[in-house]
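Appendix B. One record, verbatim.
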Amino acid sequence: MKEILLYTRNNSFYRNFFLEAGYMVADGIAPTAATGYGMRESPPDRVAVIEISDDSLEECSLAAGSLCGSGIRVVCVAAGDTDRVRGFLLREGIADLLPAGQTQRLVESVAAMEDGAAEAGGSFIALDDCAARLRIMRSVAERFNFEFRAVGGIDEFFAVLGNECAATFVNLGAAGFEINRFIRLSHACGKVKLAPFIPYKDACEGIFVHEMISGLNRLTRVILSPEEMLSFMVGMLFRKSIVGPMDDLARALRYPDSAVFARESFGRLYFTLGMEAFELAHVLGDEDHARMRGSVSRMQRALVKADGVRWLVRETGRVPTCGVSGA
């Protein structure tokens, strides 16, 4: 059973909802810089809920850093999704942000963390030296049933790259990363082109000409910012998770043949369908009904799992390309 550690302005308000859901609940104790949290005192079956706001970020930073460093999963709640709040989450490596006071959504999101995968979706490999960013990437990938492996350098990247890899993510600005060496090894390793290669780099570090003429454009069409990469990751995985059960539901209802039911009134349907209205396929038999209930349940789980990471998704526009068409 998970234990919930509360660091909010009204712990008693949240405590009751978690207790009703069957969790153990305790008030969190702010760590000091000298002690922090040790791994032995912080088992992985704990989840900390921290309430943050623009005027409390410095105060919350020590607790968040100690909790994350101890392997405790942190979920933040806030009254507003501001630029400062987002910056705090990115710096601390916290993936989940939910509205303060929305207890039902908070409890559902925590419960979804325990939802085991029916089947693995694949694996991601990430080459990056930013622990906070890797923590967010891992949280996003694993909630949608993808394995996640972080590597520290080019040699390890190619050593673990396998045919089962669903995608690779590479921070071009990682310490010690040599673009020319990476390109040479990628040409010698055909596995790189078997999966999407997604490079990214912090805009403040600049995109240099030699990175574009080094041959990188043969592997990818874009170089994203870290924020764009995270937005892409969440958006793709959520769609992958929810469209499958949507398709099952549509097939059970004989969609798109039945799409007319969404557009027409009952009377209009009667006159449009004519005798076909009396000969519609039976979709409420045991098999179809169970199939539709299962599809709706899977869609609901996908929505709950995505709820906490929606703040990572950015409004998208046309992304400039750097490679050949079809890369």
